[in-house]
Amino acid sequence: MSLPPFLLEILVCPQCHAPLAESAGDEDRELRCTAESCGLVYPVRDGIPVLLVDEARRPS
Description:
By secondary structure, the chain is mostly beta strands. About 10% of the residues lie in helices and about 30% in strands. Strands 1-2-3-4 form a 4-stranded antiparallel β-sheet, with no helix packed on it. A hairpin with a 7-residue loop joins strand 2 and strand 3. This is UPF0434 protein FHR36_003173. It holds the Pfam family Trm112p.
């Protein structure tokens, strides 16, 4: 299930305030920060973005 486009337009990275892009992970959807200097990846659990820096991971 994809996030609604209007939601992706307003969501930003809590760390650096760059836009987020949706990407499909191995099991769940994720939101990836588009800033090269940040690049945090936030989980989407049950269709709800978890935009907590402590829950984010660095891309591998």
